[in-house]
Design a protein that fits this description.
Layout (H helix, E strand, L loop, with lengths): L11 H10 L8 H28 L10 H12 L9 H17 L6 H17 L3 H28 L14 H88 L4 H30 L8 H5 L14 H10 L3 E7 L7 H22 L3 E8 L3 E8 L6 H4 L4 H11 L3 E6 L5 E8 L1
Parallel strand pairs: 1-2
Antiparallel strand pairs: 2-3, 3-5, 4-5
């Protein structure tokens, strides 16, 4: 059962409560039906035993009783309906009620076990009837009928010659006391059966509600877990893209430069090869850190610096302080990069600083790979209400590969959006391409 938000403006909790008031108890399981069979046999065995004992003592309430075989037949008749007391509770209640009155009218010797059977039937009708309105009406009707039969018996008792109560010693008249005793005993008997049946039904409903909420909680936790896994996969994919795209781009540019000048300028070729070597080491270190996160047990803690490729022994992640290094690497790749900081510098959260670093890294990577630019300008502005980073170039458009299906701009937008920021990316009017990210202060 699911709870749907109401359209009348009432609270969802009120709607859920209304839904649960219409809950219907599931039908009995095969195991419960087998238990009912054993209960019926137990009641029957006690009915037979009590009938034999009463007849052996000759203690008949009405003074006489039918033949023993008929009394045993009445015991079987009043006990057998209990076999289906949970499957057809109202039918069983009506059947047992009719047999109870008919048995007393026939002055069957034992009245205890039929009373127990009637109690069980009344309780079962309250505990298992799915239509609560019908259950209430039938039970009240049976109770009224039983009190009517009791009243008939009391009238018969009163119109007969008054018996002699030789041992009476209480403050009340013996006849009045007998009448009050019969009324109070039956009132307690029937109200107890009604009350415990109602409580059993409410208890079953509460258990079902708790099970339903537990299942909802389990599904919600599973959904949250899946969301966390997806978010973590996106983060790892974003970091992998940043690491691989940037370093491989630098290595490709340097390898091409080394090939072109290898014969005429061996020194410059060696410098390019050294840059390729350093860049490869950095890329491998960052990839090893990311793989360490993937392979680590949940209880293990992996330093952030190891994940993001910080130098050995350093646990801080890349941030604003490492932007000059990015500019220097881009210059080695042949791009004239200017880096400037404007405004009054202030402390920046680590997550924002890392996102700024990755935005600049991805932007310079795109410039080197796709823009064909000669110059690029990296500007960091500390504004009053925001931190702004801007990468502009004079090339033909550094997002060409991204428009072709890459994930660079997508990753940048996701990083900026995590911190409630905005990303602008597109061609400049004067030529080139501009990437601007704004993070709220």
């Amino acid at each position: 059962m699911t709870s749907v938000a109401p359209v009348d403006g009432s609270r969802p909790a009120d709607h859920a409560e209304t839904e649960w008031t219409r809950w219907r108890r599931p039908r009995p399981s095969p195991a419960q039906q087998r238990q009912d069979g054993w209960l019926a046999l137990l009641v029957l065995a006690n009915a037979v035993a009590m009938t034999l004992l009463v007849n052996s003592m000759g203690a008949f309430a009405g003074g006489t009783a039918p033949h023993l075989a008929e009394q045993l037949a009445w015991s079987v008749a009043v006990s057998l309906p209990l076999v289906v007391r949970r499957r057809f509770p109202l039918v069983v209640l009506l059947a047992v009620g009719v047999l109870f009155i008919a048995g007393q009218a026939r002055q069957v010797g034992d009245g205890l076990v039929p009373s127990i059977a009637l109690f069980i039937a009344l309780y079962s009708a309250g505990a298992w009837t799915r239509d609560r309105v019908l259950a209430r009406r039938v039970r009240i009707g049976v109770i009224v009928a039983m009190f009517g039969w009791l009243g008939y018996g009391l009238v018969r008792f009163l119109v007969r010659p008054t018996p002699v109560f030789e041992d009476a010693a209480g403050p009340l008249d013996p006849v009045l006391a007998s009448v009050l005793y019969g009324i109070l005993f039956n009132l307690l008997f029937f109200l107890s059966a009604y009350f415990f049946g109602e409580m059993a039904w409410m208890s079953a409903r509460r258990r079902a509600e708790l099970a339903h909420r537990a299942e909802q909680l389990r599904r919600s936790q599973a959904q949250n877990t899946r969301g966390a896994i997806i978010a973590e996969r996106v983060r790892i994919a974003r970091d992998l893209h940043d690491v691989v795209a940037h370093h491989v781009s630098v290595m490709g540019v340097q390898a091409g430069a080394a090939r072109r000048v290898l014969d005429r300028d061996p020194g410059l070729a060696r410098e390019a090869l050294r840059t390729i070597e350093d860049t490869a080491r950095t890329a491998v270190g960052e990839l090893r850190g990311l793989l360490g996160v993937l392979r680590a047990e949940p209880a293990e803690e992996v330093p952030v610096g190891a994940v993001l490729g910080a130098p050995e022994g350093e646990t801080s992640s890349p941030g604003l302080d490492q932007l000059p290094e990015l500019a220097a690497k881009a210059r080695i790749a042949g791009l004239d990069v200017a880096h400037g900081v404007y405004g009054e510098p202030r402390p920046v959260p680590g997550g924002v600083a890392l996102s700024v670093y990755r935005v600049v890294q991805e932007s310079l990577t795109n410039v080197v790979k796709h823009a064909g630019a000669r110059k690029a300008d990296v500007r960091v502005r500390f504004l009053e209400s925001a931190l702004e980073v801007e990468v502009a170039d004079d090339g033909r458009g550094s997002a060409a590969a991204t428009r072709g299906g890459g994930f660079g701009l997508v990753g940048m937008r996701e990083r900026v959006a995590v911190h409630g920021g905005e990303l602008e990316a597109g061609p400049r009017r004067a030529g080139g391409y501009l990437v601007r990210a704004r993070f709220p202060a």
